[in-house]
Amino acid sequence: MYMTVADIEAQIEEEKRSACTECHSAAWAEGLWAGIEPEIIAEAALATALSELGKNGGEDALVSLLEHMRDRVLAGDFTPQRTCH
Q1: CB within 8 A of 82, min separation 6: which ones?
Q2: What is the predicted pLDDT for the residue at 48?
Q3: Ramachandran class of 64: left when φ > 0, alpha when ψ lies in -120 to 50, beta otherwise
Q4: Using the 8-state DSSP alphabet, how is residue 78 labeled?
Q5: CB 19 within 8 Å of CB 27
Q6: Fewer CB within 10 Å, N- or C-terminus of the chain?
Q7: Do 46 and 73 belong to one domain?
């Protein structure tokens, strides 16, 4: 099967996302094990992510990301008991 450059790039991006998810899941579990409430872990993770992205992309990039994530929240992407639209 022939893969285009776009296919390869998409596969690499998916592998990066998967590795990142594993790292974040391990850190989340470690925080819970240490007795830190999920809301505190989440707030710290978001603050760290936004601070790091803000160093390179500026406010417009941050607002764009937040709007994208807001749309995903409203679509139910992060609520297991809801049906995604």
Answers
A1: 76
A2: 92
A3: alpha
A4: T
A5: no
A6: N
A7: yes
